């Protein structure tokens, strides 16, 4: 039994060393993250989501001329939770989205989100739908996207929105294939 005692002590020392190393690593990572997302005392780490209702969002988009995106999610959706934490919580995504878009989050199974999810035929979660400042859909992303991938998606739709504004279109090229009667009824939805 005497020979087992030094072995147990060395296991305890090893375990303590591992815990201490994990503590140092997590402290270092938190310090690096805080330094990366804080500038001048204000945190810009996350996407800032608009807090009004749908009608107010459309008015805000038209007033500011900014495109917007809507994150349709559900409470039970694992990828939705990952996207909220890992993607919308990313400093680069937050900085870009907050500068170029109005972001909006809707629970597709509650309140206004339920009817809007049905209207826009949301069939999977998460679904992020991108709209021009005029309220017409530019496109959508279905499923989880990590921060790097979502940043590429944001860049794409921001450029598409700028191109639509420069052309003076009512919406993307696909809107030109819709009959004038259908186009006017679509516009009426947003007025």
Secondary-structure blueprint:
Elements: H1 4-37, E1 38-39, E2 42-43, H2 54-64, E3 68-73, H3 78-87, H4 91-100, E4 102-107, H5 111-119, E5 127-131, E6 137-142, H6 147-167, H7 180-189
Parallel strand pairs: 3-4
Antiparallel strand pairs: 1-2, 3-5, 5-6
In brief, what are we looking at here?
This protein is an alpha+beta fold.
Describe this structure in words.
There is one protein chain. With about 190 residues, the protein is α+β, with helices and mostly antiparallel strands. It folds into 2 domains: about 5-35; about 55-190, Glutaredoxin (3-Layer(aba) Sandwich), CATH 3.40.30.10. About 55% of the residues lie in helices and about 15% in strands. The protein contains 7 helices and 6 strands; from the N terminus they run αββαβααβαββαα. The protein has a 4-stranded mixed β-sheet with strand order 4-3-5-6, sandwiched between helices. Strand 5 (about 125-130) and strand 6 (about 135-140) form a beta hairpin. The model is unreliable at about 25-45 and about 170-180 (pLDDT under 50).
Which blocks of ≥5 consecutive residues have pLDDT under 50? 23-43, 171-179
Task: Report the β-strand fraction as a percent range.
Answer: 5-15%
Count every helix, treating DSSP H or I runs of 4 or more residues as helices. 7
Please give the CATH architecture of the largest domain: 3-Layer(aba) Sandwich
Annotation keywords:
globular, Glutaredoxin, two-stranded antiparallel ribbon, alpha+beta
